[in-house]
Design a protein that fits this description.
Blueprint lengths: L1 H20 L12 H20 L8 H46 L5 H71 L2 E3 L2 E3 L4 H61 L5 H27 L4 E9 L6 E10 L2 E2 L9 H5 L3 H8 L4 H27 L2 E4 L4 E5 L5 E12 L2 E8 L8 H14 L5 H5 L5
Antiparallel strand pairs: 1-2, 3-4, 4-5, 6-7, 7-8, 8-9
Length: 458
């Protein structure tokens, strides 16, 4: 019974020992793939070395780049497959080891030396496979890093190769187009160029050029003739101008001889006054339009502090926001009659009838202004300062109007006062202006205000 009790255990141990000592056929380790891996690594390293040795900027043929990329991809796929198989073998061996350890824990310690040796051997194999797997994993990682370093240059070279390929294709198309154009016949003046008629066409073109050159010379000769004619015409025009000047001089000498008691100097002054008068008349037409919307102001100046006699006045016209000046004055009625002789000569002529009318209106205007100013001087107190050349008029409401005299000149027998009105604080001359306008109405000078004052712009 004792033998029979031990026999199953012995047979069980033998079976386990047999199984541990002899690996089943489906678990028999295959030849280690390190040899094939080393061959693949050497081929990949050789390709990488060739890539590194080549200049970085030298274009690589597209076929070689594609072949190298395919070879590297195949090697990576092969290594990945071997690595996966090694992982499966490792997992299977670790599973067996765990299973055997579990059996050992269930059955207790065995005294079978062969089983222990088998376990030790299998553990050694497992450790060896782990180490080999780690080494191969590190090699694969190093290869991946190395390939990653060379991937970007390879990609750039590939892009450059594709760009060069496109450029080459475009150049080939252009060459083919040029070849087709060179094969086409050449036409000149709707006539096909051939070896037979090329010389005839060239001779015809040379003849045409000669004709154009002759025509150019003819045109230049005609232009020279026209320029000479223009020069002659200018000289004739200058001669006619000189003859006209001589005739005018003779005419003026005749007029001087016909004038009784009038010297050449007087005639020259009279002509200058006539020209000035025409300028005034031209200016009056422009002044009339400007006086339509103007505001009239009267500046009382040059008051005699003893007799309160008004001997000078100033008329100011305001256009919009800008203060413009329009001035005239008279000292005494006697001086009004004392007109410059040149002016008297101008009035006596038939060409200055309009001037006579303006002078009449002017005298009426002066009379009306003097009368109103004398009346206002009696109503309002006037203060005159000869040192500062200014006069102040205080109106009834207490406001003060101050006037400044700027300059005085004598023109053609009239005393002309150039000045501007500068109101003081709260200054207002509306009452004075109203009185002036009333006197102008009574004098009949307000029918045309411009006719009364436009001559004063001279």
């Amino acid at each position: 019974m004792e033998v029979s009790n031990e026999t199953p255990h012995r047979s069980k141990r033998n079976a386990i020992s047999h199984n541990m000592g002899h690996t089943p056929k489906h678990l028999t380790p295959k030849p280690h793939p390190s040899a094939a891996l080393s061959m693949d690594l050497s081929s990949i390293q050789q390709v990488l070395t060739e890539i590194q040795n080549k200049p970085t900027r030298v274009p690589i043929e597209l076929e070689q780049v594609n072949a190298a990329s395919a070879n590297i991809q195949n090697n990576l796929d092969s290594e990945t497959e071997h690595f996966g198989k090694l992982k499966l073998i490792l997992i299977e061996l670790e599973t067996k080891n765990c299973f055997l350890e579990h059996l050992n824990d269930l059955n207790g310690n065995f005294d079978d030396k062969e089983l222990e040796e088998s376990l030790v051997e299998e553990k050694a194999k497992v450790r060896h496979l782990k180490q080999a797997n780690e080494v191969q994993y590190k090699q694969v990682q190093a290869m991946v890093e190395s390939l990653g370093e060379h991937y970007e240059p390879c990609r750039q070279e590939l892009a450059l190769a594709q760009e060069l390929l496109g450029t080459t294709t475009a150049l080939r198309d252009e060459v083919r187009q040029l070849k087709r154009q060179t094969r086409e016949p050449l036409y000149i003046n709707d006539e096909q160029m051939t070896k037979d008629n090329a010389q005839d066409i060239l001779d015809a073109q040379k003849q045409r050029i000669v004709e154009l050159l002759d025509s150019e010379q003819t045109v230049k000769s005609e232009i020279a003739d026209l320029q000479w004619q223009i020069t002659q015409a200018d000289e004739a025009k200058e001669n006619l101008r000189q003859q006209a000047n001589e005739l005018n001089t003779q005419l003026m000498s005749i007029e001087v001889q016909e004038t009784d008691g009038v010297s050449v100097k007087t005639l020259s002054e009279r002509k200058q006054w006539h020209d000035d008068l025409l300028g005034v008349m031209r200016k009056m037409s422009h002044t009339r339009a400007r006086l339509e919307d103007c505001t009239l102001h009267v500046d009382i100046t040059n008051i005699n502090p003893v007799t309160n006699e008004i001997s000078l006045f100033t008329l100011t016209v305001v256009f919009g926001d800008d203060l413009d000046w329009l001035v005239s004055a008279t000292l005494t009625p006697a001086e009004q009659v004392n007109i410059n002789p040149i002016v008297r000569e101008a009035i006596a002529t038939n060409d200055v009838v309009f001037l006579i009318q303006e002078v009449k209106h002017h005298i009426q205007f002066i009379t009306a202004i003097n009368t109103e100013v004398q009346r206002l001087a009696e109503i309002f107190p006037v203060e005159w300062s000869p040192q500062s050349q200014r006069a102040s008029v205080t109106v009834k409401d207490g406001r003060v109007v101050t006037m400044f005299i700027q300059d005085a000149v004598i023109r053609r027998g009239y005393t002309v006062q150039v000045c501007s009105i500068r109101p003081g604080v709260g200054g207002d001359v509306s009452k004075i202006v109203a009185g002036m306008q009333q006197q102008l109405v009574s004098a009949g000078a307000t029918d045309d205000l411009g006719a009364c004052v436009r001559l004063l712009y001279k």
